[in-house]
Amino acid sequence: MTRWRLDVAYDGSGFRGFAVNVGIRSVAGELQGALAKMCGHEVVLVCAGRTDAEVHARRQVVHFESDANLDSLRMVRSLNRMLGPEIAVIEALVVPGSFDARFSAIWRRYRYSVVTSVWVDPQLARFVWHTEGDLDAEAMREAAQTFVGRHDFSAFCRRTPPAPGRPERSRVRNLFEFAIVPDGTNRLDFWVLASSFCHHQVRSMVGTLVEVGEGRRSVASVAEALESQDRQQCGRVAPAHGLTLWEVGY
Q1: First to last CA, the chain
Q2: Which residue in 126, 129, 161, 239 has its CB near the most CB atoms, within 10 A?
């Protein structure tokens, strides 16, 4: 069996997330179906990070195994004909059997985009959170540094009950960078880099920081919420469609 790595981009608007779920349209479901036609057998995909419904990816990474005689360039072209334009396969590479799209990854970078003008470009609307009114970017940047480092992010994660007989998953994460960068006159991009993320963590952090930018909560309240480990102390969860898995490091 040959192990393949695919780098994949997608517009998540029309999918109920990345992971396969019976009866629900997903990115992995569409990609696995196309690969099965190409390989002549069912394949199982492993991804770097499962994205939620309406979340996008610029360079998601997946791996699968097949004994079919595949050519990388032909594979990319065939998959893009079957899956485009919602899903695009950027690159296909043969990798060692030790490579794992999820467990070999050492960091993930996400971008969350917010537009604050009175209107939003229809070509961008599916990829940004449109919220009218000015935001205090400096206050948000100061509050964002609270998240940098190794912390228990329980206050900023959606808690998923563990499987029967399994321990609850740790919500301690190591966040390396958090930058808020203007892109044009009325758009702010929130760039977050960490070893991994909890469920809804990026959206919860961004939603809370936007409340700081609006003047609805103080900079100090963000540190207090983080230390409390109480989900009730978190601000609103930013909408899913403004989030993009940007890249994965190995």
Answers
A1: 22
A2: 129
